[in-house]
């Protein structure tokens, strides 16, 4: 602050000096102007003197000539008249004296103005110097106080029992102790987190088991044009008070079926997936899950599993959920997918351009079934998943029957593998998700299948019958 005041005072002084210099310069210009006027007047006076001398000489030489004298007088009177016009009615000598007095008066006034300006400048300079002296005194006083504080601090440091090095070591020990405590608390938090994650997985999967390892859901398809024109003749109805009960009108005889949950004709793809989403989460925990759509041809199995692009089914929604749930800082996950179909009891890889490649189901050395040489593609987003779906859909075999214009003639399987690794603990998990769109069961007498389609229908019905036996045994 003191340095700022000194700088401000110096700036004010410099401004005043500049102002005084400008006044002095203007006065110098005024003096030069007066001097020029004085010189001009002296030249005029000298000119008047020369004219008078010439007049006297002419008068002496031409005294004999009255007319010449008269002319000279006229000229002289004319000159004098001019002089009177310039200098007034005074005589030349009086005018000169007047001009000299005026010059002296102007000079005296100029000296007085200059003296007053000099006095003003001196006063301002003295005030500025006095102000600077006061500020300098304050600065020196503050400097003395700072120096005194510094000496006291220096004395205190010297008198301290610990050296600087010892203080640094003590601080380092304290920091090290704090870091050790933090690491210990961090490990405790991680252990608690892992325990909670294990409990979450345990309770989640116990809940899934309590709801049933095998669940049967029924979705009633809305009325379509292939059903005819009598919409009132719908044979399947749901109980409004119990969403697990289905009523079927079989030629006038009502049959009741009990399932885990039934969905009406107004159900949405989102509602269907919400019911099975907990099963998809179990795959991340290392469980094997299978979801398949079963029903006669034209019942809407492919719509429920695949669905259109604008309203996707279980397949795409399941992959999307896996991508969202596998975003974990403590675990690293890899998701791969393969698509195959079973057509006339023959396995075909829908992602392999070589459709003649023979595939077989074999037993793994560590246990479990697998299909060697089946192409598995790593997927990280829905764009890649949609590409796989399009390729598989394009290569899948369909045909037109009396029951369905685009009847699937094979069982289609989307096999998803989720591999998880915890870099911190080294733990690993492996889960499988099989999403199956079964071929539709059909009565040959209604579908009017013949030739190749008849063989397809026979193989489809045979495999579905075997599947029913397996589920019944479970």
TrEMBL record:
Gene3D superfamilies: Kinesin motor domain. Pfam families: Kinesin. InterPro entries: Kinesin-like_fam, Kinesin_motor_CS, Kinesin_motor_dom, Kinesin_motor_dom_sf, P-loop_NTPase. The keyword Ubl conjugation does not apply. Its main location: cytoplasm. ATP binds at residues 295-302. Residues 213-474 form the Kinesin motor domain. Residues 17-51 form a coiled coil. SUPFAM superfamilies: P-loop containing nucleoside triphosphate hydrolases. It comes from the Eukaryota. GO terms for biological process: microtubule-based movement. GO terms for molecular function: ATP binding; microtubule binding; microtubule motor activity. GO terms for cellular component: microtubule. PROSITE patterns: KINESIN_MOTOR_1, KINESIN_MOTOR_2. It is found in: Cytoplasm, Cytoskeleton. Keywords: ATP-binding, Coiled coil, Cytoplasm, Cytoskeleton, Microtubule, Motor protein, Nucleotide-binding. Belongs to the TRAFAC class myosin-kinesin ATPase superfamily. Kinesin family. This is Kinesin-like protein. The gene is ORF77554.
